[in-house]
């Protein structure tokens, strides 16, 4: 058996296409396009790529996206000032501060940023107000990656109501909101983490297993219920040739990709899981493309809500 692959690239493209008329309607009515402000601190190479893709995707559907760059040496105060300026500027509907912030800013820096962003413009859904609204099942702006997972499962026809969903990971940005969104879809939800005892015995019960662990190929066939759906949220960069050789067979396209680039993005799910699961999100091309699509959806929803128009999704 080989799992059906859930195509996040196609679903992400469909969501972006569906946003075009909403962007056009907003622009015609408001006299300006929905505006997204992205704050990037320092020169973290993966962040540069993520931000470039976000700016390009926003422009493609007709939004105005602006990059506010701060140097690596910027203080937390400088970042909060940039956020406050975006809060005060009515032409911006969405604000995103690209993670991670430079480690020199200290462990509480991200939380301080989330505490400062105007909840009405919080397109990442990370502010305490929006986290609270999500827990009450009335979020307008929910975190993009878990919302993308729900969109993918819905459009792939994977039933969530009544299903046992197990989420590995309890971070504020993925694991916890993922569990809340699955609960909202009427799944029976179990959350696992690093202190969970006998993890495989729990994950093997999952009709839907979401891996948001941040550890390469962590979920192996012994974790998976035969025929279950496995969602791989992980993005891990592997640069060790022996590691790649252990994961992918000789002659596979992934090995060829590694030979060409010298690195490979691998998820939290081991490739052998494809032989056990009924459906699986690939990495790349699964959850990743949905994150940007849902960011744009949140930007449009924020623009509509700020203008006092009812959300149309
Ligand atoms: P994180 O903050 O590091 O959280 C990882 C979670 O995994 C924690 O809750 C941790 O438990 C749990 N964990 C670690 N080791 C474990 C073990 N041995 N057994 C069970 N649970 C374990 O990571 P994150 O920000 O949630 O991200 C998770 C992954 O998703 C990463 O690979 C990240 O790159 C990726 N990601 C992808 C996207 C996307 O667009 N596709 C977006 C965001 C993140 P404790 O809480 O007990 O420490």
**What percentage of the residues does DSSP assign to strands (E)?**
5-15%
Biggest sheet, spatial arrangement of strands? 1-11-8-7-5-6
Largest sheet data: 6 strands, parallel
Sum up the overall morphology in one term: globular
Structure description:
The longest helix is centred in the N-terminal third of the chain and has 23 residues, at 8-30. The strands form 3 sheets. The protein has a 6-stranded parallel beta sheet. A 3-stranded parallel beta sheet has the order 3-2-4, with helices on both faces. Helices cover 42% and strands 15% of the residues. The chain contains 11 helices and 11 strands. Helix 1 (8-30) packs parallel to helix 11 (288-306). By secondary structure, it is an alpha/beta fold. The mean pLDDT is 96. The two termini are 36 Å apart. The chain is globular. It binds NADP nicotinamide-adenine-dinucleotide phosphate. NADP nicotinamide-adenine-dinucleotide phosphate (NAP) is lined by residues 145, 168-171, 173-175, 192-196, 199, 212-215, 233-236, 268, 287-288, 291.
